[in-house]
Amino acid sequence: MQFIYHLIVFYLTVNLIWYLFREKKFWNQVSTAIVLIIFLLRLFLIK
Description:
There is one protein chain. With 47 residues, the protein is mainly alpha-helical. It has one domain (2-43). It has helices at residues 2-22, 26-45. The two termini are 13 Å apart.
């Protein structure tokens, strides 16, 4: 079950990175970066 959770978070992280580099507006990039940091912490800090 934890493997599926990691796959979902990894998929969302990849999509956020793609959106971050595609977006032109600065504030949208900032908000995407904040969400991306939260998802990366979830991906790497789950025990």
